[in-house]
Amino acid sequence: MKIYKIGLYASTFFLVSMVYTTQAVAASWECRKHLGHEPIVRVWAEPDSNAGTLEANGITKDAWYRQEGFDHRWDLDLDESDGIDAVTFIIELDGSGKYYHFGEEKNVQSPTLYTQCTKTE
Fold first, then answer.
1. What's phi and psi for 76, nearest 5 deg?
2. Neighbour count for residue 48 (Cβ, 10 Å)
3. Closest to 97 (Cα-Cα) out of 59, 42, 49
4. For 98, left (φ over 0), alpha (ψ -120 to 50), or beta?
5. pTM of the model
6. pLDDT tens per residue, range 63-110
Protein backbone atom coordinates (compact mmCIF):
# COMPACT_ATOMS: atom_id res chain seq x y z
CA MET A 1 0.00 0.00 0.00
CA LYS A 2 2.85 2.42 0.79
CA ILE A 3 4.55 1.70 -2.54
CA TYR A 4 1.33 2.60 -4.34
CA LYS A 5 1.13 5.97 -2.53
CA ILE A 6 4.75 6.79 -3.33
CA GLY A 7 4.17 5.91 -6.98
CA LEU A 8 1.05 8.07 -7.02
CA TYR A 9 2.92 11.02 -5.46
CA ALA A 10 5.85 10.58 -7.86
CA SER A 11 3.61 10.48 -10.93
CA THR A 12 1.60 13.47 -9.64
CA PHE A 13 4.84 15.39 -9.07
CA PHE A 14 6.07 14.47 -12.56
CA LEU A 15 2.79 15.55 -14.15
CA VAL A 16 2.72 18.85 -12.22
CA SER A 17 6.38 19.58 -12.99
CA MET A 18 5.82 18.67 -16.65
CA VAL A 19 2.89 21.11 -16.89
CA TYR A 20 4.94 23.78 -15.11
CA THR A 21 7.99 23.41 -17.35
CA THR A 22 5.96 23.47 -20.56
CA GLN A 23 4.65 26.94 -19.87
CA ALA A 24 6.94 27.83 -22.76
CA VAL A 25 7.86 31.44 -23.15
CA ALA A 26 8.61 34.05 -20.50
CA ALA A 27 7.67 36.91 -22.77
CA SER A 28 6.81 37.68 -26.36
CA TRP A 29 6.21 40.83 -28.35
CA GLU A 30 4.57 41.74 -31.65
CA CYS A 31 5.96 44.77 -33.44
CA ARG A 32 4.19 46.78 -36.11
CA LYS A 33 5.29 49.55 -38.44
CA HIS A 34 1.95 51.32 -37.88
CA LEU A 35 -0.84 50.67 -35.37
CA GLY A 36 -3.59 48.51 -36.81
CA HIS A 37 -1.27 46.77 -39.29
CA GLU A 38 -0.09 43.17 -39.12
CA PRO A 39 3.06 42.52 -37.06
CA ILE A 40 6.24 42.61 -39.12
CA VAL A 41 8.55 41.45 -36.33
CA ARG A 42 7.80 38.99 -33.53
CA VAL A 43 10.25 38.15 -30.75
CA TRP A 44 10.24 35.67 -27.87
CA ALA A 45 12.42 35.30 -24.78
CA GLU A 46 12.77 31.95 -23.02
CA PRO A 47 12.37 31.87 -19.23
CA ASP A 48 15.55 31.95 -17.13
CA SER A 49 17.84 31.74 -20.15
CA ASN A 50 19.58 33.79 -22.82
CA ALA A 51 17.68 31.94 -25.54
CA GLY A 52 15.34 33.89 -27.73
CA THR A 53 13.68 33.81 -31.12
CA LEU A 54 13.22 36.51 -33.74
CA GLU A 55 10.78 36.30 -36.65
CA ALA A 56 10.84 38.81 -39.51
CA ASN A 57 9.52 38.51 -43.06
CA GLY A 58 8.18 35.05 -42.25
CA ILE A 59 11.64 33.74 -41.33
CA THR A 60 12.23 32.54 -37.78
CA LYS A 61 15.73 32.37 -36.28
CA ASP A 62 17.14 31.51 -32.88
CA ALA A 63 18.74 34.51 -31.21
CA TRP A 64 20.71 35.41 -28.13
CA TYR A 65 18.44 37.33 -25.72
CA ARG A 66 19.36 39.62 -22.86
CA GLN A 67 17.85 42.44 -20.90
CA GLU A 68 19.91 45.63 -20.60
CA GLY A 69 18.37 47.82 -17.93
CA PHE A 70 14.77 48.23 -19.09
CA ASP A 71 15.54 47.37 -22.72
CA HIS A 72 15.16 43.90 -24.24
CA ARG A 73 17.71 42.86 -26.88
CA TRP A 74 18.01 40.01 -29.38
CA ASP A 75 21.18 39.37 -31.38
CA LEU A 76 21.75 36.87 -34.14
CA ASP A 77 24.54 36.14 -36.58
CA LEU A 78 23.28 35.26 -40.05
CA ASP A 79 26.73 34.60 -41.52
CA GLU A 80 28.74 32.48 -39.13
CA SER A 81 31.86 32.62 -41.32
CA ASP A 82 31.93 36.25 -40.25
CA GLY A 83 31.30 38.21 -43.30
CA ILE A 84 29.44 40.05 -40.47
CA ASP A 85 25.82 39.71 -41.64
CA ALA A 86 24.18 40.20 -38.23
CA VAL A 87 20.91 41.51 -36.81
CA THR A 88 20.12 43.23 -33.51
CA PHE A 89 16.59 44.00 -32.37
CA ILE A 90 15.98 46.19 -29.32
CA ILE A 91 12.69 46.97 -27.58
CA GLU A 92 12.90 50.03 -25.35
CA LEU A 93 10.85 50.73 -22.22
CA ASP A 94 8.22 52.72 -24.18
CA GLY A 95 7.69 49.85 -26.66
CA SER A 96 9.80 51.33 -29.45
CA GLY A 97 11.38 48.54 -31.48
CA LYS A 98 14.61 49.13 -33.39
CA TYR A 99 15.84 46.66 -35.98
CA TYR A 100 19.52 46.91 -36.94
CA HIS A 101 20.91 44.95 -39.89
CA PHE A 102 24.67 45.09 -40.08
CA GLY A 103 25.29 43.59 -43.52
CA GLU A 104 29.04 43.93 -44.05
CA GLU A 105 29.45 46.87 -41.65
CA LYS A 106 30.38 46.65 -37.98
CA ASN A 107 29.39 50.17 -36.94
CA VAL A 108 25.80 50.79 -37.99
CA GLN A 109 24.59 53.89 -36.14
CA SER A 110 20.88 54.03 -36.94
CA PRO A 111 18.19 51.36 -37.16
CA THR A 112 17.13 49.90 -40.49
CA LEU A 113 13.53 49.77 -39.22
CA TYR A 114 11.49 51.41 -36.45
CA THR A 115 8.46 49.61 -35.02
CA GLN A 116 6.00 49.91 -32.14
CA CYS A 117 5.88 46.76 -30.00
CA THR A 118 3.30 45.36 -27.61
CA LYS A 119 3.89 42.56 -25.16
CA THR A 120 1.68 39.55 -25.90
CA GLU A 121 2.51 37.29 -22.92
1. -145, 150
2. 7
3. 42
4. beta
5. 0.71
6. 999 999 999 999 998 766 655 578 899 999 999 999 998 877 667 788
